[in-house]
Structure to design on (836 residues):
């Protein structure tokens, strides 16, 4: 459709409904692997570890029968950011960089070390997009919330509101399409009365003011709907006592191995560079 | 001991000086079927919320299954005993999967795993949603979503189920399914409380309580209520079948639908019934046979879909072709999701067809040079629940938003706003400086319509303009629309009420995005009628058809 359309059908992530060993893992095991890839990719200084983590992410993707291209499409919006970061890498030299200069245009030169830094940064981006994209492709909205509950289950014994926390996430998921729908409805109502949004540059204040007819009703409607949902939850005895769960996330032997594997990998990835002297 | 007992219950909202409920005394036995009726703002929802502690009543005034919802412990007991189904279907869904949503209440109660699954199965079976159990509720129709809410309530194994205007936001078929569910619950010995604006629905109950200004003014059988002379005083009306029975001259029966009444009437009056029905519901021809104004909207082979070009592509309108004569009142009908809202947006140029053309008031909306903003103001659309778009603090400013965008200032602006507010039943002098947030629901709807009338448009596009209003306000809003149409301007309105559709010059039926029929009400609901459209028939036509069937059966015998 052309014309005014918002993301009425947005969903966080894009769950790919196929059966695979990765899909069958419990949410906790998926969360652990997500962390096991993302943490080293973000903080490790070792190119070897970044490369290894990328390969692990790629292997998981294959195992999950999800197309790599589908996941990397999420990378496109971040590309300009990556481009800027890459340019900065090239413009500003590393202190004490003695590696060979590959290209030089005027005062700006690209050394081998800079090129490696750019490549490693690109790899980090790709690995992270793969890991996050894969997680949302193999985990339903419900599992995403339940996984949080399970992850924090040990803390729940100490009084941490794990179920409440998980429910917050579930409700947030529920509200994304609701708020998008309200927004669309209000935009249409005001557009029918001649409001124009962002049409023509007429100064920031006028532009901002054009959004007042949107923000007030959308906020009120979102709060009203939140209140309605809150009432419905309360009427269904939310928070009256210790709760049980309809969906059990119990994994078998494979799941246990996957969890142990994730923790082992994370520890190794963080410890091995200093232990083994990798770079 | 009664299941519910209410003694001298009064309730005032915090910060308010007026009582929302005053001196209510009521008791309900197990297996009762009670309807609560009253105008918008009469305290119906407040009363229901006092029963399960969503609002805290004064201690000792309310007892539900032996629990006092004024106390924290009693509230839990009351909520277990009384399940509540709310008005808006999507606003009571918590989980992202149908069966998980049914289980939500059971999880909260700490029901063991195996029992929980058994109860969820039963509840889904009872509302006929087993086939949808693994789907996302987002993709259910509003009628299905409401059945899901009932399943969530049933799974709690309550002794009472209260429906708070639970049928007001769903289409006729979805509504009929919910009403059947209520009957099934009562048959199982579950007490049903049904808060409704619809007198035909209320008449199905065994007892009716009328609230007015927070005070019960009547409690008794539907027979007694509808035979009394108090209806107009409390902005209520007789059920259609009751009214029709009286006019036909036979004994009215409570909760009877048009089909049953038609049969009974045919049996009682024989061949005469045809003339009687024709006399009661005269079929008027099209208002303007010559249609001097030409064509207001011309739609040719227009299709549009949401999220087109993505895997989530959802067709909304498919190859629609129709001419809408200028100066006519057109009713757009069809099931939820049939494409009515999308079609209205095509006419308003809020949506542009992916293929085909839409010519609105002489301009093709797909034309890149067309000034869509100006076009939209000539034929503005009131979206569903348009009052939700109100944003100004004062009534006068809200109504002035549109004409200001048209460039009007000073006395011309004031004149425009005055005319619109007066026409909408919110007299300018009394309401210009009223705060929008203090208006009642019905008044907000009028204000929303006034804010569109103030554009002095050539055509009006209205998406369910009478939904969720009480009968009296509904009639007033309809009268407002008819008055506007009588000035020779075009109105296209969608509606779930076939009786409203029957008032139009032209009825357009949509199914799965396509226009499947159009013509005068008599052509669409009479000779051209097709059950497969999934909509009801206006009362008069349903009555006539049932009588006709009964007569032909008689002949066969």
């Amino acid at each position: 459709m052309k014309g005014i359309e918002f993301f009425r059908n947005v969903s966080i992530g894009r769950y790919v409904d196929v059966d695979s060993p990765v899909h069958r893992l419990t949410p906790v095991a998926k969360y652990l692997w997500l962390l096991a890839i993302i943490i080293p990719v973000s903080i490790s200084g070792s190119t070897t570890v970044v490369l290894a983590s990328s390969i692990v992410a790629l292997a998981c993707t294959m195992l999950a029968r999800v197309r790599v291209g589908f996941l990397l499409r999420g990378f496109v919006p971040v590309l300009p950011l990556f481009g800027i970061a890459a340019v900065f890498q090239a413009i500003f030299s590393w202190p004490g960089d003695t590696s060979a200069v590959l290209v030089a245009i005027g005062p700006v030169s690209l050394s081998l070390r800079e090129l490696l830094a750019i490549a490693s940064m690109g790899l980090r981006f790709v690995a992270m997009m793969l890991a996050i994209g894969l997680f949302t492709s193999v985990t339903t909205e419900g599992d995403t919330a339940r996984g949080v509950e399970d992850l924090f289950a040990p803390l729940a014994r100490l009084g941490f509101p794990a179920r409440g926390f998980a429910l917050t996430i579930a409700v947030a998921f529920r509200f994304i399409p609701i708020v998008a729908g309200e927004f669309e409805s209000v935009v249409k109502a005001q557009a029918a009365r001649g409001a124009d949004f962002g049409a023509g540059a007429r100064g920031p204040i006028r532009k901002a003011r054009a959004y007042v007819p949107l923000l007030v009703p959308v906020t009120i409607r979102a709060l009203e709907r939140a209140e309605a949902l809150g009432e419905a939850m309360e009427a269904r005895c939310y928070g009256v006592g210790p709760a049980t769960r309809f969906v059990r996330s119990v994994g078998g032997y494979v799941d246990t191995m996957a969890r142990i594997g994730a923790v082992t990998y994370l520890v190794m990835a963080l410890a091995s560079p200093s232990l083994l002297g990798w770079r | 001991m009664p299941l519910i007992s209410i003694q001298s219950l009064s309730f005032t909202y915090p910060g308010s000086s007026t009582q929302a409920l005053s001196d209510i005394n009521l008791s309900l036995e197990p297996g009762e079927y009670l309807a609560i009726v009253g105008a918008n703002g009469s305290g119906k929802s407040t009363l229901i919320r006092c029963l399960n502690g969503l609002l805290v009543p004064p201690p000792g005034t309310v007892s539900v299954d032996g629990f006092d919802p004024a106390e924290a412990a009693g509230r839990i007991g009351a909520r277990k005993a009384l399940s509540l189904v709310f008005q808006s279907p999507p606003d009571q869904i918590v989980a992202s999967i149908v069966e998980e949503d049914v289980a939500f209440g059971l999880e909260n109660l700490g029901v063991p795993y195996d029992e929980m699954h058994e109860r969820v199965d039963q509840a889904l079976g009872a509302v006929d949603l087993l086939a949808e159990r693994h789907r996302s509720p987002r993709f259910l129709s509003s009628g299905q979503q409401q059945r899901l809410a009932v399943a969530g309530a049933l799974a709690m194994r309550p002794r009472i189920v209260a429906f708070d205007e639970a049928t007001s936001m769903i289409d006729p078929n979805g509504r009929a399914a919910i009403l059947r569910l209520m009957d099934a619950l009562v048959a199982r010995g579950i007490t049903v409380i049904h808060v409704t604006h619809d007198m035909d629905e209320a008449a199905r109950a065994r007892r009716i309580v009328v609230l007015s200004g927070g005070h019960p003014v009547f409690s008794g059988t539907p027979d007694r209520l509808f035979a009394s002379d108090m209806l107009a005083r409390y902005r209520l009306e007789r059920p259609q079948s009751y009214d029709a029975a009286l006019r036909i001259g036979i004994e009215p029966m409570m909760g009877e639908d048009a089909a049953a009444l038609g049969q009974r009437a045919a049996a009682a009056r024989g061949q005469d019934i045809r003339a009687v029905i024709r006399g009661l519901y005269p079929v008027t021809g099209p208002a303007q046979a010559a249609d001097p104004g030409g064509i207001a909207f011309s739609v040719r082979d227009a299709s549009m879909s949401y999220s087109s070009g993505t895997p989530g592509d959802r067709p909304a309108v498919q190859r629609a072709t129709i001419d809408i004569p200028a100066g006519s009142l057109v009713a757009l009908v069809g099931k939820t999701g049939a494409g009515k809202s999308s079609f209205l947006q095509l006419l308003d140029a809020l949506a542009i067809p992916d293929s085909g053309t839409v010519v609105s008031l002489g301009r093709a909306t797909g034309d890149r040079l067309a000034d869509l903003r100006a076009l939209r103001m000539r034929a503005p659309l009131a979206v569903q629940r348009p009052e939700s778009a109100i944003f100004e603090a004062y009534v006068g400013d809200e109504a002035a938003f549109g004409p200001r965008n048209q460039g009007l200032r000073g006395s011309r602006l004031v004149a425009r706003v005055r005319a619109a507010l007066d026409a909408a039943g919110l007299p300018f002098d009394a309401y210009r400086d009223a705060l929008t947030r203090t208006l009642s629901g019905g008044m907000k709807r009028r204000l929303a319509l006034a804010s569109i009338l103030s554009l002095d448009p050539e055509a009006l596009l209205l998406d369910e303009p009478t939904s969720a209003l009480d009968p009296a306000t509904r009639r007033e809003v309809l009268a407002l629309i008819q008055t506007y149409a009588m000035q020779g301007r075009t109105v296209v309105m969608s509606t779930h009420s076939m009786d409203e559709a029957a008032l139009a010059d032209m009825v357009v039926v949509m199914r799965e995005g396509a226009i499947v029929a159009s013509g005068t009400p008599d052509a669409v609901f009479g000779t051209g009628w097709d059950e497969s459209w999934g909509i009801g028939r206006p009362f008069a036509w349903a009555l006539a058809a049932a009588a006709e069937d009964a007569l032909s059966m008689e002949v066969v015998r």
In short: The CA atoms of residues 298 and 372 of chain B lie 16 Å apart. The longest helix of chain B spans residues 539-556. Chain B touches chain A through 78 residues (CB under 8 Å).
